[in-house]
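INFO  loader      accepted 1 record
INFO  loader      residues=214
INFO  predictor   begin
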Amino acid sequence: MTVRVPQVNFSKGELAPELYGRFDVDVWQSALRKARNVIVMKYGGVTKRPGTRLVGSVVNAGQPVRLIPFQFSLTQTYVLEMGQGYMVPTALGGRVLQAEQAITAISNATAARLTIAFNGFSVGDPVYIDGVSGGMGAVLNYRTWTVIAVIDANTFTINADTSACAAFSGCTGGTANASPPIIVPPPTVPPPAGTVPAPVVSYGGGLGQNRGGD
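INFO  predictor   done
INFO  writer      dumping tokens
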């Protein structure tokens, strides 16, 4: 008769292939042969790995971008998007923003026109959009857009085509500004460094070189 003893402790994580048959080792009794899409809990159990979702597109897709994990404390973790001349932090499933402003209107156009009271944006500024309801939200949400024209203090256009979307039905979140914000000019960003020439390789002892008299 064969009796199966349930294993309830997986605190040692995943076994190395060299330990698959080493049932005489203590770690074998509290480990897994394979652990895929799970997280080992500190008390010995396992739980399914949480899913992922699109938080946002990179700010400048035309330049190399690197994602750097950063842990400030046991409860504060971030992902830092490092690009040419900028750094964008992400935490708790969303972008860390300077200020969340309320969108009161979005037009249906090849270059969408947004109405935000005293927004303070200038041409070329990046704008991250979230919370737009309806079909228009499927096009605009979780993406970073660029301001391509400033109409007045409350209205600007972005490089988003909303001509085929349903009419704007509202947006959640944000606070309406009662006065123009204080604009701090951004620092000057140097151009990307040029290509670094390859170093000169020296073959010690004269290997690969013409040596007169040998």
